[in-house]
Amino acid sequence: MATATQARTIGAKRSGKGSGAGLSRRIFKFRWIYLMLLPPLAYFFIFRYMPLYGIQLAFKDYVLKGIAASPWNDFAHFKYMFLEPGFVPAFRNTLIISFLRILIGFPFPIILAILINEVRMRRFKRVLQTVYTFPHFLSWVLLSGIMLNLLGSNGMVRKAVGLFSSGAFDNWNLLYDGGAFRWLLVFSDMWKEAGWGTIIYLASIAGIDQALYESADIDGASRLQKIAYLTLPGIASMIAIQFVLRVGAIMEGGFDQVFNLYSAPVFAQGDIIDTYIYRLSFVRASGVNLGFPTAVGLFKNIINFVLLLAANAFARALGQKSVL
Amino acid sequence: MADTAGTGTMKNGGGLIRTGRRNRIKRFTVGDGVILALLTIFGLSILWPFYNAILVSFVPNTVYLRYQGVMLIPPKITLDSYIFTFKSSLIWTGYKNSILVTFFGTVYNMFLTVLCSYAMIKPFPGRKLAKFFIVFTIYFTGGLIPYYLLIKSLNIMDTIAVMILPTGLNIMFMLIISDYFLSLPPSLEESAKIDGAGDFTVLLRIILPLSLPLLATFTLYYAVDRWNEWYNAMLFVKSVHNWPLQNVLRTIINDVQFMATQNIPGAQRPDIQGDAIKMSSIIVSMVPMMCLYPFLQRYFLSGLTLGAVKE
Questions:
Q1: One domain, residues A15 and A99
Q2: Contacts of residue B140 in chain A, CB cutoff 8 Å?
Q3: Which residues does A232 contact at the CB level (< 8 Å), separation at least 6?
Q4: A25 with A134, same domain?
Q5: Does residue A213 share a domain with residue A134?
Q6: Least CA distance to A279: which residue of chain B?
Q7: Range scoring the smallest mean pLDDT among A83-87, B64-68, B186-190
Q8: Is B88 a residue whose pLDDT tops 90?
Q9: Alpha-carbon gap: B26 to the closest alpha carbon of chain A (Å)
Q10: Which B residues, 218 through 277, put their C-beta within 8 Å of a C-beta on chain A?
Q11: Same domain, A45 and A90
Q12: At a CB cut-off of 8 Å and minimum separation 6, what does A3 contact?
């Protein structure tokens, strides 16, 4: 993309460089393009930039008269943040859950893609991919219902566990078990997204020169050898890029999933920053100072910002064009 | 295998054909068996929860309590929970609202995305600035409270618009489409320009017709996102008759009694159970996806690859 655009841009620059009259002529030449750009830019301005104005609440005590009328409070929210009993656990949970997701959820689609690639029956391969990708397109609202059916108090999993341990687990419910809840998040997310994750790796595998495999066959390489010495090195750069981008998103604990699956008994282990901010803002009954959740949000966004910049720089160094 | 080789559209079809021909003697090995078994098990683990949900939605209470969902074939089937579900006015308003949000939302998304994608391939003065303006929003956002206060000040609380307008365009999609536009032969556009066509004409008459399969894919992605919309509705839509299906579903899943308070005479028949009603509501809201997905699967699976292969 870069080269072609640059070529065109340079061409245009050469023709119209210099005087102010040239610039206005070029602007006039692109007048319809500016018109086209107006709706998208207006969207970004209204829904992505105007909220930034509200960030000042992080440094203010919110009063009902509005953002501008609220008095500054000398970083009181930030000083209070680490004393607020919910903040540190939420922060820690976000990191732990993200870490587990990377540890287990990240390699899985790679393994899955390699296994799918080994299947020689093309029709079966397509059926598998169709099935694997299906849950990606469903909402966590719906999937939480599906999981409740399996894991809830009348669910199949409990019944199955009950068969093996008479009595001991009668009141056990995976959804309310703090110790198991994080694993539930990790594995259910893996279950939902793994198929979708394989697509990019399968495309990457398809890009490997097939002649390499043929000569490996002639040399009598085993399947495992071909995977280890051809397939994996062939997709290594894609894996690296995906990994870097994944790590850059470590502050995103997965609001949709956690919010639809968690409940009071698992707040201690399952509450992430986003759900914590939500409850601070909308659930606590007593007159909430909206400044505090804004401050927590800003704190998260700043960390996120740095991580994303770093991830993007790394990915670019690995040869990814700057998409993100 | 060999007879289907010529018609293959699978990504690594070329490789498959060649290995197929060369190794026709190659037998089905133990390794193949293990791989197929593992993949099949994972596939079943994805299908089973859905199958189980369908089962639970169809069996009467007595059967459900006896087997607690551990069954392969239901011994007895009833439609009671579906009758109950369809009697709820909320399911119907939910469907109506979700269809509205999906239709207008997707049109709005594609309108913004196509305009932006096309404009961004032009070397207009200020292009770099515009791109920075757009991409910056990936990196830094206001957070929940500033967003909430903005929506409040825009006076679109509790409307259908609040589920459509704030979700404008996906920057990743926009950049992929932009890349694709750029890969089209510029000569087509140039000759149209010589014939006096303006930028809008070129976009509508030349660029869009050439990009239909790609645009179909992203239209589909947007439509799925809009269909799954619940977040803005949860934050901003208080009247239940404005809720999209997902939020109705959320309430049913969390509290089946809620249904009873909405125009439905309590649990008249003792043999309907809460879980069956939850599952039948889930199935009812999944129907569009289940029907469309197998047929549009090719489009569903192609978008990401387009972005990835081009590097």
A1: no
A2: 52, 301, 305
A3: A114
A4: no
A5: yes
A6: B144
A7: B64-68
A8: no
A9: 11
A10: 224, 228, 230-231, 235, 246-247, 249-250, 252-253, 275
A11: no
A12: none
Which DSSP symbol is given to A101? I
The three state secondary structure string of A22-45 is HHHHHHHHCHHHHHHHHHHHHHHH
ipTM score: 0.87
Residue of B40, B56, B81, B144 to mutate, interface with A, max A Cβ within 10 Å: B144
User: How far is it, in rounded angstroms, from Cα B232 to Cα B56?
Assistant: 31
Q: Write out residues in chain A with pLDDT < 50, as ranges.
A: 1-18, 323-324
Same domain (yes/no): A6, A95:
no
CA closest to A2 among chain B residues: B179
B126: left (phi over 0), alpha (psi -120 to 50) or beta: left
Token couple for B281: 């509501």
DSSP state of B243: -
Q: What's the domain count of chain A?
A: 2
Task: Give chain B's domains with CATH numbers.
Answer: 5-79 (no CATH), 89-263 (1.10.3720.10)
Instruction: Assess if residue A62 is contained within a domain.
Output: no
Task: Say whether both A105 and A221 belong to one domain.
Answer: yes
Would you place residue B271 in the very low, low, confident or very high pLDDT band (cuts 50, 70, 90)?
low
Residues 71-100 of chain B whose Cβ lies under 8 A from any Cβ of chain A: none
Q: Which pLDDT value is given to residue A316? A: 83
Question: Tens digit of pLDDT for each residue in B126-170?
Answer: 999 999 999 999 999 999 999 999 999 999 999 999 999 999 999
CATH number of the domain enclosing A127? 1.10.3720.10
The pLDDT value given to residue B258: 56
Q: Which domain holds residue A249?
A: 83-317
Please state the separation of Cα A21 from the chain's center in Å: 47
d(C-alpha B18, C-alpha B5), whole Å:
9
Q: Does A17 fall in a domain?
A: yes
Strand-pair partners of A72? A60
Tell me the pLDDT band of B125, cut-offs 50, 70 and 90.
very high
Give the chain B residue whose CA is nearest to the CA of A305.
B139
